[in-house]
Design brief:
The complex is a heterodimer of chains A (629) and B (583).
Chain A: H1 5-21, E1 24-29, H2 32-36, H3 39-52, E2 56-57, H4 59-64, E3 72-77, E4 89-92, E5 96-98, H5 107-116, E6 126-127, E7 134-135, H6 142-145, H7 163-168, H8 173-179, H9 183-193, H10 205-214, E8 221-226, H11 235-242, H12 244-258, E9 262-268, H13 272-287, E10 303-309, H14 318-325, E11 349-353, H15 354-366, H16 368-372, E12 382-389, E13 395-400, H17 405-412, E14 422-427, E15 433-436, H18 446-451, E16 460-465, H19 470-484, H20 490-507, H21 513-529, H22 533-537, H23 540-548, H24 550-559, E17 572-575, H25 585-589, E18 595-596, E19 604-605, H26 615-619, E20 625-628
Parallel strand pairs in A: 1-3, 2-3, 8-9, 8-11, 9-10, 12-16
Antiparallel strand pairs in A: 1-4, 4-5, 6-7, 12-13, 14-15, 14-16, 17-20, 18-19
Chain B: E1 3-6, E2 9-12, H1 19-25, E3 49-52, E4 56-59, E5 70-72, H2 76-91, H3 107-114, E6 138-140, H4 150-158, E7 164-167, E8 174-177, H5 193-197, E9 203-205, H6 209-216, E10 222-227, H7 248-258, E11 262-265, H8 266-287, E12 293-294, H9 299-308, H10 322-337, E13 345-351, H11 355-360, E14 366-367, E15 370-371, E16 375-378, H12 379-388, H13 410-413, H14 420-434, E17 452-459, E18 462-470, H15 472-483, E19 491-495, H16 514-530, H17 540-550, H18 556-562
Parallel strand pairs in B: 1-5, 10-11, 10-13, 12-19, 13-16, 18-19
Antiparallel strand pairs in B: 1-2, 3-4, 3-5, 6-9, 7-8, 14-15, 17-18
Helix pairs in contact in B: 8-10, 8-14
Classes of the chains: A alpha/beta (629), B alpha/beta (583).
Chain lengths: 629, 583
């Protein structure tokens, strides 16, 4: 049981001493990306290898051990970030990072051999793509070097299944600090830190807390929003899986600040590991007295329940999330009243996103000044992103607010794959916008992005090269929104459907210039008129691409061409004069008699008649039918 | 309370909850399709958008008014927004207005006309025509549904049942029933309030006008009509008259013009009900058993009790409703007088109610295969027949109903408004208990429109606690309190529809308006005043029927003809098998 700050410090110290006794700590990444590429097998193989060599040890053994010994710790951690090169294994204390480690073959044996003699397995290290230079230490790899980790500080380092590991890295000291302040002082610190909501909107967390704290009520609720739904985003998932105690600690501090005694973590059921970890963490924290009655002897009591969502994107919206917890259909409700005034079961409720909450303990530990020294004055701190798309280095990253797109895409991301050209960046997922190459120097913070019609969103960052069709990207997101809209309000339900149908027409080659005007008119109406944030931001991908890539839309509707070569129905099938042997086969299979020609002459396809069924393409034995975009 | 500016005009705040109320009170008719003052806020249609200085475009329905606000309701942005919203709603709407029952009474049609939506720029791409549910007395056409959720909230919040809910997401969203069952297989009690509040033709009452014409054109049938009290104060609305204007005389003339052989007044049967029900009540009071007694005139309430509170069924008055008492009189007594068999008589009721259609089909009210009431028409349906026949309703001469079932008292007439049954029973109960004549027949305490009224009445030393509820959610609250032993009542009147029968779903469409209901109610109370006799026990024709046939209230013959039994039904709530609306 942890009853005081002293108990926390004791654990921190003894755990640290135990780690020092070990010869090494081998940290296998068990984040979603690495698991997908087989890291759990790597972990098992590693444990087996250590056991076979009689090197396997555990923290508990080490705690009892008298002094240093040969034992090595094998830990499966949360996401270490560099998903592109997973499975990852990091060797501590040296900080050597091994990439693409395979469970079968010699990789594991080689790693253990090397650790025993303090050497490096160079062929498993990161190779700079252009120079082929070997970089063995994680912190020196450009992908990591230019990041600043606050929310993800522990992710990939701590053992998420051991509270002592979290405490060792300074965990629960923020809570201890908070409980020595008055709730009002805690709110004040978060306000001063200007911690803005990382879930997308950027509303100051302290303001929400202050409103809820000011409400008189017999019951208040603190909700952690873990309903991360943007396609391709996994920042919150990584934190919940890899550093769940930081979420719990953040909720405890928030609950104390607003006067709530009950908390909920709303997490999508598609994150089974996060659900399991959170439940286990809540139990662990409760067993240690950090949840429950009279926490750290302060008189503050707090409990947390996990509520699994059924995977509706709209449930990330506060009022829909509340409806879902209450057992209703996940559907947005009119605001005001705002949740901080009347939320869950009509009681004052604060809802903060996972990443926001993960920042809170750090602010309470390291101070407001430290936090504000990172990022920009209006957007202090950092932001995590799931960096994907056509960059060399994809993965989970965290950068200070105000870093430029250039830094993110070229320095951390390593530039565009295969030396292709950057076309733009889709930031913020279905609520966000598309920025062009000309926005390279834009500062990535809440306000700058909003000014150019994009949005921080929860942190999706998709890099597009010249082979990406922005119209298709817009259509993809509109399709997503149309499937995920709760269907309640006219604009979001019907407006996004009409926008989707127009976009579909355009990529199918039936669009007109008038369609582009209609897209803008409906898009602006949906932005202005929708009931909730989902609808209000839904047109962003379309309107921003229309503003920034209008030429590409015009190619689609006027020239009926897709310059990026993506839109299937805008191809033309033509017959190569050189390759055609006038064999008649294509003429025979064409269902619409679009192919004509006479013997010994190359055939021609009448583009007016062609329905692009590809029948000719599949029968031609000479490869004479070519697709032209 | 402060002031704000609406389109430059200064408007005082008087405790309105929303900007929408303020703006409407200021005389600006902001359009809405999902807002209803008697239901919870929904915020879905987005038509009531206004511009507030410093805040931009907001939905007036869920914006609390604040002193000093500068509100514009008619800017270029707002006009464009409204028009696009309507265009979007129409984009997938089944726009076969010419053959829609609600044409002319459709809010979507009205607003489209009002905002000049003439050029629909969106292609009509409803991928599939959704099936129309005709399983019940209501017709549910999802292709006309604009997803405003009024039926969902009406059934859930006012009636406490929740037959409807939303399903699916995005443009696939639908209002539907649990497990997408046909309405006939749900917990629906047929009150029809969902259809009454529906702004479009998505929920309508299945028309049975053709059956009426068939009977009227059949020379072998003697067509006997009965007209419920609430119909006389609402039918005129269909012909441009004001709600509450009593037109019973014209109504009877119209029925005769349509070909009715006899026209009787259901208020006569209501007088009969008063005698039977009071007798039953006084017996229970003296024995102290099965109290409180619940009224049983409302078939939606009866079905509700059968489904959800079967433990209270013994408490329901065993009296048939006035409609069914009249049916019984006609088929079992009057037919003989006409020297006809019951099958030769075609009994048509004109009711403000949709549940009466269900009631008439209950097997309890069929004798040897012949239903006591053959057909129930709603006020709306009768209006349609009158219009079809080209009758100039407003200028029709007034004629009295036929005897013997045409003479009515004021007590029978006020059955159509909430509290009316209780007041009529009191007019008799008072005299029976105190053994003295009641001078002032008006019981003010019983009147009014609050959803739950409770008062104690002292009748010569005997104190009785009476309750009046309308809206089944209010009934549910009372029943739960009774179950928990928190309250005590002797007599409880329950009407399913807000306001009682005057607010029935068969009435002319007013999209459920409190004002219209109260005007109709005032019309019935006025009819009571101008009627010569105010107490059911003084209806000479009723007394004569007892002498000639029924002997006395509560007698064996009266029980056979005028009383009934109830049965426990399954419901989705209590998980019992046999969910359904089979009569």
């Amino acid at each position: 049981m942890i009853k005081s700050r002293q108990d926390i410090l004791e654990i921190q110290k003894s755990y640290g001493q135990a780690l020092e006794k070990a010869k090494a700590r081998l940290v296998v990444c068990a984040g979603p990306g690495c698991v997908a590429s087989g890291s759990l097998l790597v972990y098992e193989a590693l444990v087996q290898e250590l056991k076979d060599r009689n090197l396997y040890t555990t923290v508990d053994c080490l705690l009892e051990a008298e002094d240093e010994h040969d034992g090595m710790l094998a830990v499966s951690s949360g996401c270490q970030g560099f998903c592109q090169l997973g499975p990852l294994v990091r060797i501590e204390p040296e900080g050597i990072l091994y990439t693409k480690v395979k469970a079968d073959g010699d990789d594991i044996a080689e790693i253990v051999d090397a650790v025993e003699v303090r050497a490096v397995v160079t062929h498993l290290c990161y190779h700079e793509p252009h120079t082929q230079k070997i970089v063995s230490k994680e912190e020196e790899i450009p992908f990591y070097k230019h990041q600043t980790r606050v929310a993800l500080a522990n992710c990939g380092h701590v053992d998420p299944q051991d509270i002592r590991s979290y405490i060792h890295r300074g965990g629960y000291q923020g809570l201890a600090n908070a409980l020595e302040l008055t709730p009002a002082e805690v709110v004040e610190r978060v306000l001063e830190a200007n911690l803005r909501g990382r879930g997308g909107g950027g509303f100051p967390a302290g303001r929400k807390w202050a409103i809820a704290a000011a409400q008189e009520s017999d019951q208040k609720y603190m909700i952690c929003n873990g309903d991360e739904g943007d396609p391709g985003a996994f920042m919150d998932r990584s934190i919940m899986e890899g550093d769940p105690h930081s979420v719990i600690e953040g909720m405890l501090i928030a609950g104390y600040a607003i006067g709530a005694s009950e908390g909920y973590i709303y997490v999508r059921a598609e994150y089974p590991l996060a659900v399991q970890r959170l439940r286990q963490t809540i139990k662990e924290a409760t067993d240690h007295g950090l949840l429950g009655a009279n926490i750290l002897g302060s008189g503050f009591s707090f409990t947390i329940r996990v509520k699994e969502g059924a995977g509706a994107f709209v449930c990330g919206e506060e009022s829909a999330l509340i409806a879902s917890i209450e057992g209703d259909r996940g559907m947005s409700r009119p605001k005001p009243p705002f949740p901080a005034q009347s939320g869950l079961w009509g009681k004052p409720t604060v809802i903060n996103n996972v990443e926001t909450l993960a920042n809170v303990p750090q602010i309470l530990t390291k101070g407001v000044k430290w936090f504000r020294s990172i990022g920009t004055p209006e957007s202090p701190g950092t932001k995590t992103f799931a960096l994907t798309g056509e960059v060399e280095n994809t993965g989970l990253i965290e950068v200070p607010m105000g870093q430029t797109l250039e830094d993110i895409v070229f320095t951390i991301g390593g530039g565009i794959r295969d030396g292709r050209k950057l076309k733009g960046v889709q930031i913020g997922g279905p609520s966000g916008g598309c920025l062009t190459e000309s926005h390279r120097d834009i500062s990535v913070d809440f306000d700058s992005l909003k000014k150019v019609g994009a949005m921080m969103g929860s942190g999706g960052l998709v890099v597009m090269d010249e082979n990406t069709c922005v119209v298709e990207v817009a259509r993809f997101f509109m399709n997503f929104i149309q499937n995920e809209s709760c269907g309640k309000c006219t604009f979001c339900r019907e407006g996004t459907l009409q926008m989707l149908q127009i976009l579909q027409r355009i990529v199918d080659g039936h669009g007109t210039l008038e369609d582009l005007d209609l897209l803008v008119e409906v898009g602006e109406a949906v932005q202005l008129g929708s009931l909730c944030g989902l609808g209000k931001s839904a047109p962003n991908p379309v309107l921003s691409t229309l503003a920034n890539f209008r030429d590409e839309y015009i190619s689609h509707v006027v020239d009926k061409r897709c310059p990026s070569g993506v839109c299937h129905n805008l191809r033309r099938l033509v017959i190569s004069e050189e390759k055609c042997r006038s064999c008649w086969l294509c003429v025979k299979v064409c269902p619409v008699n679009a192919i004509s020609g006479s013997r010994k002459e190359p055939y021609k396809i009448n583009q007016e008649k062609c329905i692009k069924c590809d029948a000719c393409l599949s029968v031609c034995k000479f490869g004479a039918i070519e697709e032209v975009y | 309370m402060g002031w704000l500016l609406v389109n430059g005009m200064s408007v005082a705040l008087n405790g309105e909850k929303s900007l929408l109320e303020v703006v409407r009170n200021a005389g600006v008719d902001l359009p809405t399709l999902c807002y209803h003052p008697e239901l919870s806020l929904h915020g879905a249609c987005r038509l009531c958008m206004v511009e507030v200085e410093g805040r931009g475009v907001v939905a007036a329905c869920h914006t609390p008014p604040e002193s000093g606000m500068v509100v514009n309701t008619n800017s270029a942005v707002l006009r464009r927004l409204r028009k696009i919203a309507l265009e979007l709603l129409l984009s997938r709407h089944d726009r076969e207005c010419t053959s829609c029952l609600r044409s002319g009474h459709c809010s979507l049609q009205d607003l489209s006309n009002r905002f000049g939506v003439s050029d629909l720029r969106f292609k009509q791409e409803r991928s599939e025509h959704l099936p129309i549910d005709r399983s019940s007395i209501l017709v549910r056409d999802p292709n006309k549904c604009i997803l405003c959720g009024e039926c969902v909230r009406m059934c859930g919040e006012i009636q406490g049942i929740g037959v409807y809910g939303f399903a699916h997401r995005g443009a696939k969203m639908q209002v539907t029933t649990a497990f997408q069952q046909d309405l006939a297989n749900t917990d629906c009690v047929h009150c029809g309030q969902c259809a009454a509040i529906c702004p479009t033709g998505a929920l309508t009452i299945k028309p049975q006008v053709d059956q009426a014409w068939r009977a009227l054109n059949d020379p072998t049938k003697t067509v006997v009509f009965q007209v419920a009290p609430a119909v006389r104060v609402s039918l005129g609305e269909e012909f441009g008259m004001t709600p509450g204007e009593s037109t019973m005389g014209q109504l009877i003339s119209a029925l005769r013009t349509l070909g009715a052989d006899k026209v009787f007044d259901t208020a006569f049967a209501a007088d009969l009900t008063v005698l039977e029900e009071t007798e039953e009540f006084l017996e229970r009071v003296s024995s102290g058993e099965r109290l409180p007694q619940f009224t049983s005139c409302c078939p939606a309430w009866v079905k509700y009790a059968e489904q959800f509170y079967p433990e209270f069924l013994p408490h329901l008055s065993s009296c048939r409703s006035p409609q069914q008492m009249m049916g019984s009189l006609i088929k079992k007594f009057y037919a003989k007088r006409l020297e006809k068999g019951p099958e030769d008589i075609y009994m048509i009721s004109v009711m403000p109610c949709t549940a009466k259609k269900f009631e008439a089909s209950r097997e309890e009210f069929t004798t040897d295969g012949v239903p006591d009431v053959d057909l129930v028409l709603t006020t709306q349906e009768l209006a349609r027949m009158i219009k079809e026949a080209g009758i100039d309703y407003v200028n029709l001469p007034e004629t009295p109903p036929d005897r013997p079932f045409g003479f009515v008292t004021g007590a029978g007439v006020i059955f159509g408004v909430t509290g009316g049954v209780s007041e009529a029973v009191l007019r008799l109960g008072y005299e029976r208990i105190t053994q003295s004549e009641l001078e002032d027949v008006v019981f003010e305490d019983v009147r009014g429109y609050s959803g739950m009224r409770k008062w104690e009445v002292d009748l010569g030393g005997q104190s009785l606690t009476l309750g009046v509820v309308h809206g089944l959610a209010n009934a549910k609250a009372v029943l739960d309190d009774l179950k928990a032993g928190k309250v005590h009542f002797d007599l409880i009147e329950v009407m399913a529809c807000p306001g009682g029968c005057i607010g029935g779903a068969g009435q002319p469409i007013s999209n459920v308006s409190r004002k219209v209901r109260q005007e109709r109610g005032a019309g019935l109370y006025h009819d009571d005043v101008v009627t010569a006799v105010h107490k059911s026990q003084q209806n000479p024709d009723v007394l004569e029927i007892y002498e000639e046939w029924l002997t006395a209230p509560g007698s064996h013959t009266a029980h056979e003809a005028l009383h009934t039994t109830y049965r426990e039904r399954g419901s989705l709530w209590n998980g019992r098998a046999g969910v359904g609306s089979k009569a």
